[in-house]
Amino acid sequence: MCLACPENTFSALIGAVGSDLCNRCSDGNAYSAAASTAEYACMCNAGYEEGGRVGAAVTCTPCPADTYATLADALCLACPEGTKGIPGSNSQLACKCLAGSYGSVAEGLPCTVCPDNALSSSSNNRLVSDCYCDADHGWVGLPTEECQRCAENQWPWVSNRYCSCNAGYYGARQDYAVCMPCPAHSSSNIATEMREGCRCLSNWYGNLSEPAAKCAACPENSQSSSAFSVADCACNAGYERIVESKGMPACRKCPKDAFSWTPSQCSCNAGFFLDTNATINASQPDPPSFVCGSCESGTYNQLHSQEGKSACVSCPANSSGYPHVISRSSILDCYCHLGFSRKDILTCSPCPPGTYGLLDTRAAAVGGRNWTQELANTNMSYPVFDTSRNVTDAQFVTTLGACASCPRNTSTAGSGSTSRDSCLPCDAHSVSLLWGPCLCNAGYSRNQSSAGCEACAAGTYKPLRSLEHALFSPCLPCAGNGTSGSGSTKCSCPRNTWGSGLSGVCTLCHLNALSSPPDNELADSCLCEAGFYGNGTQCTACPSNSTSLLGQARESWDCHCVGNFFLVFFNTSDGVMQSECTACPPASQSAPASVTEGNCSCIPGTYGDPSKRTKCTSCGANTNSTSGATSSAWCFCDDDSYGNLNSTKQCLRCPANSTRHKHANPRNSSISDCVCSKGYFGSAFLFACTLCPVGTFNPNAGAVEAGECLACPVGTFSQAGATASSDCVRADGSSSASCLLNGTCLSR
Asked: Is the pTM of this model over 0.70?
């Protein structure tokens, strides 16, 4: 079955298969009928005109303003005279009359200019009634005639069709009616038509609907708003209505301590009550209608208009009333006693442990003191100010009472303390917060009979600091195999086991593994001991000539060579690389954990370089060298020898009782560099070193004369050849080390 190409498309192909072979008109503002066979069938839409063709393709251009085009029009046509239209208009009906005129092209109504002093919009101007008068103008008669300027005291308030009266005037709104002023002391809204629409001003009254009615002033001390009669005049606040002898209402000031809580009717204020037993002196000028009695100190009445003394309620327990306050109208006129504070508005509660009463709040504030800052500097911990009362220096300082916090780590013996002297230091092993009792630290507890915090006994624990609601929280026993020392905060498994100290389920560590409480809760807390490797659950001895530190070796390669051995890598017959610790060459040494033969060095008295496979050779008789000497140049004669190692290559012993001078070159010296040793004097070169005499000592080598031997302190003596003052002893054998050089040591 063959289907027609849709509208706005065409196809010149015969045998086309599929709608995708139907081509759209090249211009989006063109159209074609269904089943079109050529692009020449594409025509411009309404509101557009043809701008030419390129081949068969059409170009469509929107109609300019004030023109239009229908589907039947190839070109845009001008709107009728006196009308205008928007660009792209597709019908003559889109042409509208110009602003300032009226008519309808669609209805065949010609466009006509609005009457003088009248305008219209271009969007809503079908009839002459759609024309509206200019500002300060209105229609005269029907809105088809003329617009004239409004008369005096008029303005087109309601609409721009008619003039109406200004505020304060009244009169008809049509046909230029005269606007009449409202009566004296009255006014009206705009566009008021009748006299009765005038209303008396504030504080005046009168019903102006009557022809001759006027506005009269409200009585003294009263006020009104649009009152019709004197009864509508309400007494001012603080005044009550009375009837004078002439029958006219009047307003009189309320009696003392009373107010007009109900308009024009007085009653007693809060803090006072209607005293029905009071006697009123009727002979006094303007006697009051009633008497208000004051609530006594220690009571209050927070409601007005109450009758009888029973309306006054007593202050709460542990509180009193301010003697200097006259109007006791609130519970806040009651002060909490020293050591008490209002934790809630109705109750004075004792200052809790760790706090003390700062004020009993009886004295009035002294002018100039910054109470807010003064109280803030005392670490207030309980409610202090009633912020809704706007406390000032002229008022009482704090109506809620004040509890101040004891300094940190101090507290009181109980609640209700009245001075800072009640704050005592917490005992050992306890602390206090900003306020509250002293709380035992973790690992410590107190019982009902103990004076302080005692350490938890071995085998028990306490994990947390005590809480305020659990001051006497006990130490808990360790479960199962769990154990603890004194003052513990948790239980642990014993040494060389692992597990939960809390549950007491403990497991022995593997052979050659160790653990230390309290950090032995997991299996891997068991560590292989020194000389073994593994993960703690299985420990294996380190290979030969190697060792490890406690818990430091997980695998065999974590073991390190012992001293004087180094690590050697080699391949086995099956090609697997392994390592072993090999001894350093003879006469050499190395530090533990050496990894190459280069870490080996020759011992003192020898020289060589094991890293270069050079063996360590002895320096020779009477010689020495530092550790690690790599050549004979590092060898030197020992302290009691001399010689020239650069030439003779040997060292000879100095004569008996002599040594080489300390400044002589240890590699190039002669017998002349030998001097007598400590405790001797003379000439080593002449082989004549003599012991220092009895009773003397010589601490320095190189003495030549006997006079260089120093005498022992008086009262002491020494053997021949003494080398220090400590060799000088008293007759009882005690040392003279405490005697100063050449000083006198006295016998005991």
From this structure: no
